[in-house]
Amino acid sequence: MELIESPLQDLKKEVSTGTTIIAVQYQDGVIIGADSRTSSGSYAVNRVTDKLTPVHDYIYCLRSGSAADTQIIASYVSYYLNMFSIEEGCLPTVKKAAHMFREFCYQNKQYLLASIIVAGWDEENGGCVYNVPLGGSIIKQPFAIGGSGSSYLYGYCDIHFKENMTEEEAISFVSKGITEAIARDGSSGGICRIATINKDGVKRRTIYGNELQKFWEK
Amino acid sequence: MSGIGTGYDLYPTTFSPDGRIFQVEYAHKAVENSSTAIGLCCKDGVVFGVEKIILSKMLVEGTNRRVFSVGEHIGIATAGLTADGRRIVQNARQEAKNYENFTSDIIPIHVLTERLSIYVQVFTLYNYIRPFGCSLMVGSYDEEKGPSLYCIEPDSVALGFYGCAIGKGKQEAKTEISKLKLSEMTCKDAVKEIAKILIKTVHDETKEKEMELEMSWICKETKGKHKLVPKKLIEEAVEWVKGQENEED
């Protein structure tokens, strides 16, 4: 009798982005961050996943839940956002993108397992973060966390979040959060991917495993 | 009239040797048989005015509408077959609602106009459905972008106008409109000017029966919402026109 499941059983489980995702508004825009592990059961299908998915020039989405579901929803929203922005002749607002995600997630809630954070910059409103969790509700927040690793971050965020942080402070806030979640959550791991979105565009960076801060550990 | 397009005018699916689609041109004629509608872009909004011929004393005032709201912020005035106009307005309302549900923003007027244009064009392609026999003026007012007015014809061409007229008296009306200084005019003044054009220039009292004025606007005063012009203002405008007549006499 096998106490440990055969590795092949893992591949039959649905691929999920058991994950940690954070988005936070700062002075000039938003900072978004995610871990990089995609798991199928206990097998890490991809240890360098990019969960920061662009849907338009200044709008990104952070995906958690079923990898397949979130990928397809993101590609639908990206398609419609592009169509609308060409029709209208102007860049879409983050609000528009978030509401589109909500329509897809809510109308198909029976079939989907998708919890998405939509974050970006637009001229009217500056940096915005919208949370579209499992049931398809939508809520605008100054910061949002999601994924399995986020459970370990509620306390951290409540204590350390400040309005109108500088870019450095916000990046530190996000990277420390991801690091902590990776340490505590088995479904989160790998490297920390971060992006800054403001009026100058999107700047991406990666913090590798060995560069992640070490907190209390024996 | 008969014999103009003989042979090439049975279906919209046939071009004539000189490159015309006669069925679509005949659809224009249907618009030209109807009473006139005018739309003006003013400093602070858009005003529509329609000359409604009263066919019978038994008809209730304000019935037989020719001006419709789409969403809260867009108005459409029709000329031609009213039933066709209502069909297109129904489609417009659907588009506006779907857009709003999907994106949580109200539909921009140029997007709605583009979609209506595409919708109208479809009916010029097949031999089993006829083109729409109506023209529409689509208008809206936005604090930032200012007033917008588009005119969609049966051949689906949609052009942006500062001032436009459709229907029987459109030529005379357009001449009068071109004399107005629209960029300096307020909506309240436009109500008077439109009343003047419809009552004096366009409406022929000897040939036709009495007329009713239907006017609506989207302006700063209505906070960007499409509303019928208050009855009092229309009555004042009519008085003003009568006063002008007496002066000239």
Automatic annotation (TrEMBL), chain A:
<dbReference type="InterPro" id="IPR001353">
    <property type="entry name" value="Proteasome_sua/b"/>
</dbReference>
<comment type="similarity">
    <text>Belongs to the peptidase T1B family.</text>
</comment>
<dbReference type="GO" id="GO:0019774">
    <property type="term" value="C:proteasome core complex, beta-subunit complex"/>
</dbReference>
<keyword id="KW-0645">Protease</keyword>
<keyword id="KW-0963">Cytoplasm</keyword>
<keyword id="KW-0539">Nucleus</keyword>
<dbReference type="GO" id="GO:0005634">
    <property type="term" value="C:nucleus"/>
</dbReference>
<dbReference type="GO" id="GO:0005737">
    <property type="term" value="C:cytoplasm"/>
</dbReference>
<dbReference type="Pfam" id="PF00227">
    <property type="entry name" value="Proteasome"/>
</dbReference>
<keyword id="KW-0888">Threonine protease</keyword>
<feature type="active site" description="Nucleophile">
    <location>
        <position position="19"/>
    </location>
</feature>
<dbReference type="GO" id="GO:0051603">
    <property type="term" value="P:proteolysis involved in protein catabolic process"/>
</dbReference>
<protein>
    <recommendedName>
        <fullName>Proteasome subunit beta</fullName>
    </recommendedName>
</protein>
<dbReference type="InterPro" id="IPR023333">
    <property type="entry name" value="Proteasome_suB-type"/>
</dbReference>
<dbReference type="InterPro" id="IPR000243">
    <property type="entry name" value="Pept_T1A_subB"/>
</dbReference>
<dbReference type="InterPro" id="IPR029055">
    <property type="entry name" value="Ntn_hydrolases_N"/>
</dbReference>
<keyword id="KW-0647">Proteasome</keyword>
<keyword id="KW-0865">Zymogen</keyword>
<comment type="subunit">
    <text>Component of the proteasome complex.</text>
</comment>
<keyword id="KW-0378">Hydrolase</keyword>
<dbReference type="InterPro" id="IPR016050">
    <property type="entry name" value="Proteasome_bsu_CS"/>
</dbReference>
<dbReference type="GO" id="GO:0004298">
    <property type="term" value="F:threonine-type endopeptidase activity"/>
</dbReference>
Automatic annotation (TrEMBL), chain B:
<dbReference type="InterPro" id="IPR029055">
    <property type="entry name" value="Ntn_hydrolases_N"/>
</dbReference>
<feature type="domain" description="Proteasome alpha-type subunits">
    <location>
        <begin position="8"/>
        <end position="30"/>
    </location>
</feature>
<dbReference type="InterPro" id="IPR001353">
    <property type="entry name" value="Proteasome_sua/b"/>
</dbReference>
<dbReference type="InterPro" id="IPR000426">
    <property type="entry name" value="Proteasome_asu_N"/>
</dbReference>
<dbReference type="Pfam" id="PF10584">
    <property type="entry name" value="Proteasome_A_N"/>
</dbReference>
<protein>
    <recommendedName>
        <fullName>Proteasome subunit alpha type</fullName>
    </recommendedName>
</protein>
<dbReference type="InterPro" id="IPR050115">
    <property type="entry name" value="Proteasome_alpha"/>
</dbReference>
<comment type="subunit">
    <text>The 26S proteasome consists of a 20S proteasome core and two 19S regulatory subunits.</text>
</comment>
<keyword id="KW-0963">Cytoplasm</keyword>
<dbReference type="InterPro" id="IPR023332">
    <property type="entry name" value="Proteasome_alpha-type"/>
</dbReference>
<keyword id="KW-0647">Proteasome</keyword>
<keyword id="KW-0539">Nucleus</keyword>
<dbReference type="Pfam" id="PF00227">
    <property type="entry name" value="Proteasome"/>
</dbReference>
<dbReference type="GO" id="GO:0000502">
    <property type="term" value="C:proteasome complex"/>
</dbReference>
<comment type="similarity">
    <text>Belongs to the peptidase T1A family.</text>
</comment>
